[in-house]
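[Archive record]
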Amino acid sequence: MEMAPTTHEPANHARILIVDDEPPLLRMMSVYLRRLGYMVTTLDSTEQVRALTPAEMRDFAIAVLDCSMMGIPEESLASELLAANGSLRIVAASGYPVDLGVLEAVAPGRVAFLHKPFTPEMLAVAVRRMIAPKEEKRI
């Protein structure tokens, strides 16, 4: 597990959980989002996600999840995370078509899809879009 805050954080102090079993992609996402000022935790297995304590799960604003990881269907993992954190937003990433209908029904407006391969800029846009509704509610 990799946890390291950056020296400058966005105004909202958003913490992001990234779960992906492709080391180069996991590193790219982590490095880029940290450069943007986010606090990032990276995990490379579903088992590591399930080992998080409820308090740790509640700390995250967004979870970026690889939808094709071994161990548990993405819908189950995302559902567990959404249940553990009532304000969490999910960015589901996959190179394959993914039906997010069930998750959208459970957490309307809190789930988005990011098609692989994606650029760091596309990731940043997806993250900002998921954070924006929270920022608007605070104003």
